[in-house]
Specification:
Radius of gyration: 24 Å
Mean pLDDT: 94
Number of strands: 40
CATH topology of the largest domain: Neuraminidase
CATH superfamily of the largest domain: TolB, C-terminal domain
Low-confidence stretches: 1-21
Oligomer: single chain
Largest sheet: 7 strands, antiparallel
Strand order of the largest sheet: 1-6-15-8-9-10-11
Shape: elongated
Structural class: mainly beta
Length: 500
């Protein structure tokens, strides 16, 4: 998937496709489907990664359709995501927008669409065969702005939500479309004499991992994304065909540090390129690296390149150097650094159980802070040093907890249907961002390549809200990933067709 497709791509267009724009982003082309009284248009802003579609069209219903379409051809399974809003008051209640997949660009093609109408009506529309009338399954959700359409084998799944809420799902399993389809965003004015506009952001076309992939051996491509917390707007800042993992922000806000193929990299926002950080013989780093609060030191988890197994905690200057081994025992997985720089927090398996430990940052005797059956993980200090936030299966599912810095007085913060992992506290001390897996994932697992939510809640607890709908999981947000001003977060999403 080429997120930064240039104007040159549009010059490859052939005759027979009217209303073609000059930059269609991740899409191959855009065109009017059916007879258009007014030509539509697609624009893509490379800087903001925002699309605007304008178009007319009498309807998308009965035996034929008229609308404007930004599309690309795809085979196999996919997940289509976006956040969209109609612009202006509009003329018709049933002007509509959303995702659509079609066999052909003919107006009567068999099709499936996740459709949001101007009056809020939302439906999974489908035409099983060419020239047949359209059918639909209506959603109970009215006027969502988050729209997802997924193909999984012969099933088509529409997931919609108002930003901040979980998805509501409808699906159909007996529409047999071609393996290769036209896939894209659309706008229809429901009035051939009127042009309507829609704006889309957070647009992602995702090719999921194959069903038979082997975890921790097979990997798919990655995007490092940055999200503005006030608007929810996401931007992809770097993409690669390899597994990029666990970005965290440097103190000067100029870079992100992430893990890939056992090495640590610094991605510079100015040059838009990564540079390897020297970690000496420790060349099997995992995705549990943490910067000290002053940004001068970097904590690592991993092993030396010739080691057989295990994970130890090391420290190294954030600019890179020969690491110092801190924990004498393995496995130890680093997660937090105390604000005063004196202690490191980590999860360790001792006596056949995983608990949270702390150790002096310069090395010394480790101290066990939790002692309950099950997995305690993801520990992180609050910026004032008073609390340690963590996730635990002690209640039966994976939920968020906090305790005093000495391990006393644990209290549960979440108790919902999801398995919640990796609480990260904003530098201003007000918010927790974390990742939520669905209940079909085992509580003590956080696998790669799942549909997950990033959620936000006050540090003292309360109702979480969804801030991002992500295909990711393991390595998406394992490490502290707030920007120093608490205005943004960084995370990883995944797809199997990334072109960097």
């Amino acid at each position: 998937m080429n997120i930064l497709k240039t104007v040159a791509c549009a010059m490859l267009l052939t005759a027979g496709y009217p209303a073609i724009s000059q930059n269609t982003g991740i899409f191959d082309r855009s065109t009017d489907v059916g007879v258009a009284s007014h030509k539509g248009n697609t624009t893509y802003d490379t800087a903001s990664q925002v699309y605007e579609l304008s178009g007319a069209g009498n309807n998308i219903w009965f035996g034929s359709d008229e609308f404007h379409y930004a599309w690309k051809k795809m085979k196999g399974d996919f997940i289509l995501q976006s956040r969209g809003v109609l612009l202006g008051k509009g003329t018709e209640l049933h002007r509509k927008f959303g995702w659509m997949v079609r066999n052909t660009l003919d107006s009567s093609s068999a099709t499936v669409a996740a459709t949001v109408h101007g009056d809020g009506l939302t439906s999974l529309q489908y035409r099983k065969t060419a020239h047949a009338d359209m059918e639909e399954i209506q959603s109970v959700i009215k006027g969502p702005d988050v729209i997802q359409l997924e193909r999984k084998g012969n099933r088509y799944i529409m997931s919609v939500a108002h930003s901040g809420e979980p998805f509501t799902v409808e699906q159909i399993a007996d529409v047999n479309l071609n393996d290769e389809l036209y896939v894209g965003l659309f706008i229809c004015s429901h009035n051939k004499n009127v042009v309507e506009k829609v704006r889309y952001n957070n647009v992602r076309i995702i090719v999921p991992a194959k069903e038979n992939f082997v975890p921790y051996r097979d990997y798919i491509g990655s995007h490092i994304e940055v999200m503005d917390m006030s608007s929810g707007h996401r931007k992809i800042v770097y993409s690669d065909k390899t597994s990029l993992q666990a970005p965290n922000w440097t103190k000067d806000s100029k870079s992100l540090i992430y893990n890939s193929k056992g090495l640590l990299y610094r991605f510079d926002f100015g040059t838009k390129s990564p540079v390897v950080i020297n970690t000496g013989v420790v060349k099997d780093n995992n995705n549990d690296h943490v910067l000290s609060f002053d940004g001068k030191m970097l904590g690592l988890s991993g092993t030396e390149s010739d080691a057989q197994d295990g994970s130890f905690v090391y420290t190294v200057p954030s600019t890179g150097a020969i690491p110092k081994q801190i924990t004498p025992l393995s496995p130890s997985y680093l997660h937090g650094w105390s604000p005063d720089g004196k202690y490191l927090l980590y999860t360790a398996r001792r006596n056949n159980d995983f608990d949270i430990y702390r150790i002096p940052a310069g090395g010394g005797k480790e101290e066990q802070l939790t002692n309950t059956a099950g997995l305690d993980d993801g520990s992180e200090y609050s910026p004032d040093g008073k609390y340690i936030y963590f996730n635990s299966t002690r209640s039966g599912t994976m939920q968020l907890w906090r305790m005093h810095a000495d391990g006393s007085q644990p209290e549960q913060l979440t108790a919902d249907e999801y398995n919640n992992w990796f609480p990260h506290i904003s530098p201003d001390g007000k918010w927790i961002v974390f990742i939520s897996f669905s209940k079909d994932v085992p509580p003590d697992d956080h696998p790669f390549y799942k549909q997950v939510y990033l959620r936000l809640m006050p540090v003292s607890g309360g109702k979480p809200k969804v801030i991002a709908y992500v295909y990711g999981g393991q390595a998406t947000i394992n490490t502290p990933s707030w920007s120093p001003d608490s205005r943004k977060i960084a995370f990883v999403s995944n797809s199997d067709d990334i072109i960097p």
